[in-house]
Structures are given as structure tokens and as C-alpha cells.
Amino acid sequence: MATSNGAVDLSLLDEVFEQYQGQHGALIPILQKAQDKYGYLPPEAISRIAKQLGISVSKVYGVATFYAQFYLERRGRHILRLCDGTACHVRGTPMLATAVEEQFGIKMGETTEDGELTAEVVYCIGSCALAPVAILDGEVMGRMKQDKLLRTIKKTIKAN
């Protein structure tokens, strides 16, 4: 990801460019692979992708910001998503969000200073019968309560 001096290791992209060499219209899969390598799309990677593909940085940036799947800021090692669809909202997601914000010192959409946790709100994951629902690192947890959520997050962070 980053070199010892904190710079972004752009050599990680070499394999990606090799894989898509000569393929027109490969910007989105290249961005996906780059994000897999870094966990987000650092500005240096966006510039290198633009140069490699012979397109403007603004075009690459435009595509990256158009699609919700791409992130331009570093994300936590662990990702918490709180569903705030109607059923989840009514059954307590706002209280869950407040508990997470207070416990970890972040607002929804932010990452902790230590880079361990990113917390975000999503809208309706389709598990209304399990409301309120939290998803931690891809694992769906239904009928969530504040204390259980906080314990699970802390245990997950401590385990890694």
C-alpha cells in the first residue's frame, strides 16, 4: 500500500495495467482493482491510471466520484454499515449510530484516527424483518442492540 516513507506504492498497479493492456473501456475494472490494492483510490493512483490510459485526471476522477463503489479517502480495516431504511430507523438505528459515534469518536461516514473502523449509514438492505440491522465486515447482524453492537465491534477490532 504505502512505502516506509508514507508514499503510495504505485508499483502495485503494474500488474493491473498488465492484465488490462490494450483493452479499451477498462477504466472501471482498473479502478476496482486499484481500490482492491489500496483499500481506496489515492490521488497518486488516479494520476497514474490517467497517464497509463492516456486520459485526463478529471475523467478518471469523474468516473470514480460517479460510482458509489469507489472511495477517495482511506477507509478503516473494518467497515460497519448501519441500515437506516424505514423499519430499521423506527426500530433504533439512530440510537445505534449515536452509540457508535460516542464510543469511537467519529461521525457516520468517518474513519477512526487509528484506521481500524469506518462507520456509515446505508439505506435499506432488504432485511426489514431483522430490524435494526448492522453489517460488520460483510456479516449481517439483525435485531441489534447498542451494547451488543459495541461489544461485537470491539471484539472484531481486537481480534485483528
Describe what this molecule looks like in 3D:
- The chain has 160 residues and is α+β, with helices and mostly antiparallel strands.
- The protein folds into two domains: 57 residues, Arc Repressor Mutant, subunit A (Orthogonal Bundle); 78 residues, Glutaredoxin.
- The protein is elongated, with a radius of gyration of 18 Å.
- The mean pLDDT is 95.
Question: What attributes does this structure have?
Answer:
7 helices, 11% strand, alpha+beta, Glutaredoxin, elongated, Arc Repressor Mutant, subunit A, 4 strands
Any idea how many domains? 2
What is the distance, rounded to the nearest whole angstrom, between the alpha carbons of the first and last residues?
A: 18 Å
Could you give the count of β-strands? 4
Oligomer state of the chains in this structure: single chain
Secondary-structure content class: alpha+beta
Q: Tally the helices: what do you get?
A: 7
Largest sheet: 4 strands, mixed
- How would you write the strand order of the largest sheet? 2-1-3-4
Give the percentage of residues in beta strands: 5-15%
Kindly provide the radius of gyration, computed on alpha-carbon positions and rounded to a whole number of angstroms: 18 Å
Low-confidence stretches: none
Written as H for each helix and E for each strand, in order along the chain, the element string is HHHHEHHEEEH
In one word, what is the shape? elongated
List the helices and strands and how they pair.
Layout: H1 14-19, H2 27-38, H3 43-53, H4 57-66, E1 78-83, H5 86-90, H6 93-104, E2 117-122, E3 134-136, E4 139-141, H7 146-159
Parallel strand pairs: 1-2
Antiparallel strand pairs: 1-3, 3-4
Helix pairs in contact: 2-3, 3-4
